[in-house]
Prior knowledge:
By secondary structure, the protein is mainly α. Helix content is about 70%, strand content about 0%. The chain is elongated.
Amino acid sequence: MAEFALCRYTSSTEKVAVAEVMAYNSVGKVSPAEIAKQVRSFMNEELGLELTDDNVLVHMQQHTLDQRVVLGNILKDLITIAHDVKEGTMGRL
């Protein structure tokens, strides 16, 4: 698979690693546009880049459409469902 444009900066510094974790933890809690805005601001400031919100948003969308990400998310959902079913049936015994 080809490397996405911003991936070359992955964990390049401790600050970028922190930004990656913050963005990952914001998914589902904050709009993608807001995540892109915050990541763009950080990357431009810390790495001297000239990204736009759209650059970052497209990059994030490329990742969410990647087959490994989709399958990983499905697997996480299935594990959660299996755990909930197990907990539900154990309470009935």
